[in-house]
Design brief:
This protein is mainly alpha-helical. It has 5 helices and 2 strands; from the N terminus they run H-H-H-E-E-H-H.
Length: 123
């Protein structure tokens, strides 16, 4: 599992870890039941505090992406396909909101914006 941390990012390190692990799970790179690195091992690899990794793993557990088994470690949780689809829809809505703001700000007609989305969707 490769996680990249950016010190220049506006997002906290624990959030960067969460985002990347969620992405790896949702795109199938990490599959259900796969073991994640221990908190200590990941902290050492990333040269960060164990507390930071703990916060990320707690958030991932809360969101249903990973499960912790006492004495064994953290594992990728079985994924609920409907929940993943809802999460992806939420992300898409954010991008569409930005596109709508740009369209309104620059006088681009709704029909033109809708046609562009249709073209991308049908590719």
């Amino acid at each position: 599992m490769e996680i990249l941390i950016s010190n220049s990012s506006d997002k906290p390190i624990y959030e960067q870890i969460c985002i990347q692990v969620k992405s790896l799970i949702m795109d199938g790179t990490l599959s259900a039941g796969e073991m994640l690195p221990s908190m200590r091992a990941l902290a050492k690899d990333l040269h960060i505090s164990v507390i930071t990794v703990q916060r990320a793993y707690e958030d991932l557990t809360r969101d249903g992406f990973i499960e912790t088994v006492s004495g064994k470690g953290c594992f990728v949780a079985p994924q609920n396909k409907e929940w993943i689809q809802e999460e992806q829809l939420r992300i898409a809505e954010g991008f569409l909101e930005k596109a709508a703001q740009i369209g309104r700000a620059h006088g681009i007609a709704y029909e033109r914006m809708a046609n562009i989305l249709k073209l991308f969707f049908e590719e």
